[in-house]
Write a structure and sequence with these properties.
The complex is a heterotrimer. By secondary structure, chain A is of the alpha+beta class. Chain A contains 3 helices and 4 strands, in the order αββββαα. The two termini of chain A are 29 Å apart. Among the domains of chain B are: 165 residues, no CATH class; 107 residues, no CATH class; 80 residues; 99 residues, Winged helix-like DNA-binding domain superfamily/Winged helix DNA-binding domain (Arc Repressor Mutant, subunit A, Orthogonal Bundle), CATH 1.10.10.10; 70 residues, Arc Repressor Mutant, subunit A (Orthogonal Bundle), CATH 1.10.10. Chain B has a 3-stranded antiparallel sheet. A 3-stranded antiparallel sheet of chain B has the order 7-9-8. The chains are: A alpha+beta, B mainly alpha, C alpha+beta. Strand 1 of chain B pairs parallel with strand 1 of chain C, so a sheet runs across the interface. Chain C: GO terms for molecular function: cullin family protein binding; ubiquitin protein ligase activity; zinc ion binding.
């Protein structure tokens, strides 16, 4: 519908790529891995400095629908043989993330990089590595796309 | 010791011979008859000198004698004796040949070709006389006459010196000239002798020198083609040449090539093969000539169109397409693609070339091959796009547009992929290379634009050009630009020119807004108000205008905001022009000046003498050369005078009264005039080139980060990565140029194609 | 006396009187620069109320489409009055078309994309900034 707004996404991609090439501007610990089109991008995320996730690298998959930026992208951690999602009270073992900015608190003024930084800080501020409540139930019934889930946001709002 | 048997055998043989000669006559009377007949026949056949009086033979008696000899089966013997006689008298002919050839070979400058031909002609006629004088007569049977011919010709050829061939060629050429040029006093009688060609035949010259005859004709054709066709491009020549062949050369060809033809039909059949060879030669010669002249033919287009049609026909007969390509490429390289040539001229020649080669070769294979180096060369010229764009914008006045005004305006065409379902599809011509792309009937503009991979550059350049033209419009009439834009939209499509659309809208909006503002509060100022993101970048030179100029700006801006409450104006103070009237003590000067000049003179109304430094300090970031240029403009108008007191400080003084400074002024003007020319004219709108250089600096950060993180990289890898940068649209060549510049500045180094940062 | 008078260099009410004076005072300045006509070039800019260090209005982009305010939103082709801005009571500014599109989605809950307060379009108090 709003294909005209794809220019906004292109712009974001270009900005990210410029930042990545410039160590001074690059957001530490976040790296664009792949962005071959304007549908699915991959990032790697790690928490630098002291945290529960020291020396762990996670991969984030970001999927856009044509309504972006009026609708949030679908964001989840990649689960594969090589990478696992972090053990975190808001991250299910299938990679789905329970974060309000990805749902109810989304705003079109947010950006992909803002999401990445939010998730990075969500990990950095984690006090205890534990799985979300009802993880197994959720994972068993969860749709493929986390956006189809209605999360109830709890605890520290991120 | 002979045996009996042998003796008997000899006796029988002798008896046999005797019986044959005696023919069963009484005693030896038969033998006597034979002896007499031999004498008569031998005497009849004996070769004699031409000068000797002809003997009177009784035909009956001679015939009788030969009959006797035939009965005796002695004709072979007689023939042998005749040949022996001929051999013994050969010196008579040899003498004549020597005499004539000596005359032929006398080296005199005055002797013309016609004279030489005459000597040979007379020799041939004389040899024919010898031939007839010695000929045994056809009634004696085929054996004797053919033996005679062989022996006679063998002898002649053995005594003719090697120089004869050259002379014979001249003779042949003279006979051909006789046909093509008509009888002239210069042509000697021998050449015109009707017996000449029969003599060639008799003497076997026609067969022996067959290749010579052909080459005479070839050379004649070449001379004629060069004489009549060189530089003559404005009328079709091939038809005329063929008429000339039919009218003049073919009648001559009948002589060597239709010998013995009994009917015209027979002659025609005999001429068919050779005629086609000569027609081929006409085409080839014309083709060679036109190929050599091609570069100038292209220059002369469209006057030279007839010659192009000729060449097209020739090329269909003679396969010399690759020569044409080679020659043209060489000529283009030598005469066109060098630094001395104007880009405009190169483009003009290229466009003519497109049109010329399209006539010769509609599928465009030749064009593709010839154009390739031109296109590559043009691509590297910095002002090519500007030239093309300028020619796309119809000026109305200048008639030297590259684009034919009659050519329909059509959307740009891009090289198509072959559509094999197209019923009109044809395979590519065989000499099309693998990279040949069928550029079906694509128009000139499309071809020019396709020099570059992307048309974005054109759109950018168009934007710059349009900006320059719009800002120069003072009478508020944008109709011409509107028309131009409409035409360009047809070519480039609506979407890419959307920015230009906004530019034009800005112009009309400005006019409307100004009417409003003037109504609110009248002002001498009539600004053009532009939408920043839709115009090319302007050189940033934010000057501060002093005094009343500033007040006029402020007042207009206020009125504008009253009219458009949520908008503000931001002045591009260095752009535009101001009409001033300078009232001085003894004179009044009117001038249209750029804002910087107005600012300076306004400052002189504060005080009479200013240093350049003080002036610049008041106006803001102005380059010293630009400031000097503005001041010198006033010096040239006689309003200011440059003063120097030996110190480095340059000072300018206002000339309130012209008369008091009359002595000093002219001198000053002369010196400052020469200095003024040192200051370069600065275009206010950044050219695409300048913009690109500026943008490249932005990408430098990108490149630097890349090389820092990844170490050394080859150029194409840098290019690939730069593609991620926003708006990056440089070719790898342009990147190469930039990297080279960076290397010269000591920022990077390159080794084995790997670029690294200098640390 | 003539010195001070010429230095005022003001309106031409006393023009005749001045020129008479100039005839006698060789040292005085009489030059008058009169602007007859001026073809100037200016850029228009939205007055978003914010200014940069030079006092010029800040060049900002719409937070939704990331296109400068003086450009136009992705659905428009012509900037300016055809693609106007919209101001919220919360002081945030967007291309009007971008904001309306956002407000039109259920997810927006009618909130400003910047501060998630209920969006209330502001009446512009333009006169205030240019008294």
């Amino acid at each position: 519908m709003s294909v005209v707004y794809s220019r906004r996404l292109k712009k974001e991609l270009q900005e990210i790529q410029i930042e990545q090439a410039d160590p001074a501007k690059r957001a530490a610990g976040i790296q664009l891995l792949q962005a071959e089109d304007l549908k699915t991008w991959y990032f790697s995320i790690e928490v630098l400095g002291e945290s529960l996730y020291k020396n762990e690298v996670f991969h984030l998959m970001v999927r856009f629908d044509p309504e972006y930026p009026f609708k949030s992208p679908a964001v989840q951690f990649v689960v594969s043989d090589k990478v696992k999602p972090p053990v975190h009270p808001h991250v299910y073992t299938n990679g789905h993330i329970c974060a309000s900015i990805l749902g109810d608190d989304w705003s079109p003024t947010l950006s992909v990089m803002a999401i990445c930084i939010t998730i990075q800080s969500m990990l950095a501020s984690c006090k205890k590595k534990e799985l979300p409540e009802g993880n197994d139930d959720y994972v068993r019934t969860a749709p493929d796309n986390p956006k189809k889930t209605r999360f109830v946001y709890h605890g520290d709002s991120v | 010791m002979a045996s009996e048997a042998l003796r008997n055998q000899v006796a029988a043989k002798w008896q046999d011979s005797f019986n044959r000669l005696n023919r069963g006559s009484q005693g030896i009377s038969g033998l006597m008859d034979f002896s007499k007949a031999w004498a008569v026949a031998a005497d009849f056949l004996r070769p004699r000198d031409l000068g000797a009086p002809p003997k009177d033979f009784n035909t009956h008696e001679v015939r009788g004698a030969f009959d006797v000899l035939m009965q005796c089966r002695m004709l072979p013997m007689l023939l042998e004796s005749f040949v022996e006689d001929m051999r013994r008298n050969q010196h008579l002919i040899t003498n004549d040949v020597m005499r004539f050839m000596a005359e032929y070979e006398v080296p005199t400058d005055s002797k013309k070709a016609s004279g030489e031909a005459d000597v040979i002609g007379r020799l041939v006629l004389l040899l024919a006389d010898w031939y007839f004088a010695w000929a045994p007569g056809g009634e004696l049977g085929h054996t004797i006459s053919s033996a005679y011919i062989v022996n006679f010709q063998t002898h002649i050829f053995s005594v003719l010196p090697s120089t004869f061939a050259g002379g014979f060629k001249k003779l042949l050429a003279a006979t051909l000239s006789l046909f093509t040029r008509g009888t002239t006093p210069e042509i000697p009688a021998s050449v015109q002798d009707p017996k000449l060609w029969p003599s060639f035949e008799l003497l076997g010259l026609a067969d022996r020198y067959e290749s010579l005859i052909a080459s005479v004709c070839y050379e004649h054709i070449e001379v004629h083609v060069l004489e009549t066709c060189t530089g003559k491009w404005d009328e079709p020549m091939l038809g005329q040449l063929r008429e000339w062949m039919a009218d003049k050369v073919v009648p001559w060809m009948l002589l060597p090539y239709a010998r013995g033809a009994k009917t015209p039909e027979e002659a025609r059949t005999m001429l068919q093969g050779v005629g086609s060879r000569f027609d081929f030669h006409v085409c080839k010669t014309l083709c060679d000539l036109r190929t050599k002249e091609m570069f100038d033919i292209v220059i002369d287009y469209p006057d030279s169109i007839p010659s192009l049609h000729d060449l097209k026909e020739c090329l269909q007969r003679v396969d010399q397409r690759s020569q044409l390509v080679q020659t043209l490429r060489k000529a283009n390289k030598k005469r066109l693609l060098h630094p001395g040539a104007d880009t405009k001229d190169i483009l003009t020649q290229y466009v003519s070339l497109i049109r010329c080669l399209r006539i010769i070769d509609p599928p465009g294979v030749l064009l593709f091959k010839v154009a390739d180096p031109i296109r590559r060369y043009l691509r590297d010229r910095p002002d090519t796009i500007r030239c093309i764009v300028a020619s796309l914008v119809v000026d109305g006045e200048s008639g030297d547009s590259l684009v034919d005004q009659d050519e329909p305006i059509q959307p740009l065409q891009t090289a198509q992929v072959d559509d094999y379902t197209d019923p009109n599809w044809e395979p590519e011509p065989i000499d099309a290379g693998p990279d040949f792309r069928v550029n079906k009937p694509s128009d000139v503009v499309s071809t020019l634009v396709s020099i570059y991979d992307s048309k974005d550059l054109f759109v950018k350049e168009l934007q710059v050009l349009l900006a320059q033209r719009l800002l120069a419009v003072t009478d508020g009439n944008y109709e011409k630009e509107r028309r131009n834009l409409e035409i360009l939209k047809i070519r480039f499509g609506e979407a890419p020119l959307q920015v230009c659309e906004v530019m034009l809208k800005d112009m009309t909006d400005s006019k409307r807004i100004d009417q409003h503002v003037q109504f609110q509060s009248s002002s001498v100022m009539h600004p053009t108000i532009i939408s920043r993101h839709f115009w090319p970048q302007f050189q940033a030179a934010k000057i501060l205008l002093p005094g009343q100029l500033h007040e006029i700006q402020e007042s207009y801006a206020r009125e504008f905001t009253t009219f458009k409450p949520d908008k503000k104006l931001r002045w591009l103070s260095h752009l535009g022009s101001i009409r001033l009237e300078i009232q001085l003590q003894d004179r009044t000067i009117s001038a249209d000046v750029p804002p910087l000049e107005a600012a300076f003179i306004e400052l002189f109304s504060e005080k009479d003498v200013w240093t350049v430094g003080d002036l610049v300090a008041r106006v803001g970031p102005v380059e010293r050369p630009a400031a000097l240029k503005a001041l010198l403009a006033w010096v040239n108008r006689g309003v200011l005078r440059e003063e120097s007191d030996g110190a480095d400080v340059q000072r300018f003084r206002l000339l309130e009264s012209a008369s008091t400074d009359a002595e000093a002024a002219p001198v000053r003007m002369a010196t400052t005039g020469s200095r003024a020319t040192l200051v370069e004219e600065q275009p206010t709108v950044l050219t695409v080139q300048q913009q690109q250089a500026g943008q490249m600096e932005v990408y430098w950060k990108f490149i630097e980060g890349m090389l820092m993180n990844l170490g050394g990289l080859p150029l194409d890898r840098i290019q690939t990565m730069l593609k991620f940068a926003p708006g990056y649209d440089r070719t790898v060549d342009q990147l190469g140029g930039f990297m080279d510049a960076a290397r010269r500045e000591g920022l990077v180094n390159v080794k084995d194609g790997i670029w690294r940062l200098n640390r | 006396m003539s010195r001070t008078q010429t230095q005022t260099n003001a309106s031409c009410v006393y023009g005749v009187w001045y020129s008479l004076l100039f005839c006698f005072s060789n040292n005085s300045r009489s030059m008058k620069v009169i602007v007859k006509q001026w073809h100037a070039i200016a850029q228009w800019q939205w007055d978003t109320g914010k200014t940069d260090e030079n006092g010029d209005p800040e060049e900002d982009v719409c937070g939704i489409c990331r296109v400068p305010f003086e450009g136009c939103c992705p659905t428009c082709k012509v900037p300016g009055d055809d693609c106007p801005l919209i101001w919220g009571e919360c002081s945030h500014v967007f291309h009007m078309h971008c904001l309306l599109k956002w407000i039109g989605t259920a997810a927006s809950k009618q909130q400003c994309p910047m501060d998630r307060r209920l969006w209330v379009t502001a009446e512009r108090k333009v006169a205030a900034s240019h008294s």
